[in-house]
Amino acid sequence: MSINLDRLSKWTFENQIHSYNVRDTILYALGIGCGEGADDLPFVYEKKLTALPSMATVLGDPGFWLKDPCLEADWRKVVHGEQSVNFHAPLPAAGTVLAHNAVDDVINKGPEKGVYIYCSRMLFDHSSGSLLATLKSTLILRGNVGTSRSDHPTTRPRNLPDRQPDISCLNKTLPQAALIYRLSGDLNPLHIDPATATKAGFPRPILHGLCTFGIAVRVLLKACCENEPARLRSISARFTAPVFPGETIQTDIWHEGKQVHFRCLVKERGAVVLSPGTASVHA
Fold first, then answer.
1. Which residue ranges of the chain lie beneath pLDDT 50?
2. Which pLDDT does position 145 carry in this prediction?
3. Which residue ranges form the domains of the chain, and what is each CATH number?
4. Which of 96, 104, 130, 256 could form a disulfide linkage to 126, CB 3.0–4.6 angstroms apart?
């Protein structure tokens, strides 16, 4: 299926003003699996509520814009390829943010790899104007092919340390995890509708990639930052395979000074789903 790469690369977004409240912040935390113990209380209890850093990924999102018919995108086969976030300040537990979204680049990888869309978002506190987070993501149109292959250089992922992980954590996802997470904004039917999942080539609906990303952030926050969001300065990861709701995610962590390397895999299948991942942690 062809796509108009020129139109896609010139796509623009209106600035997003996104107000959220305490219930939204708690709902996001529940969507990524918080609530199993006392360590999660700061993120699910309105008393002295703290926003999880990864909630930045759902604030100011422009919506499922690739469904616009003029783009001719096969939206059923869109997957998240990469995500990174630089945190400039902790997110308020409730407030209003201003988001500037942009398409930075569109690369045709050829018939077997599809079209890669490189996007960015700058998230500001609406009242003060201070920058809260800078996000970059890669979306992959698996069902679309451009008219010719691009020779744009590909970024090589960093290798994980060649030793046993320093920490391994297990998180059992709920069978209804995607149903909860989608209430934070990502309503792509791929994550709830079996017919859509089948058309996309999956046996059943898959968990949102950014839900897996949020689970990894939660694990790192607890294991490396003593639950202090301000200590997590940046995080990036590559999505390598889907997670099905109900599966157990194992997060392996390696410490190298202020740098943390990690990967996530599904314990039941041994499938690596997020790797390589890196994070910068302040002491």
1. 147-151, 153
2. 65
3. 5-281 (3.10.129.10)
4. 96
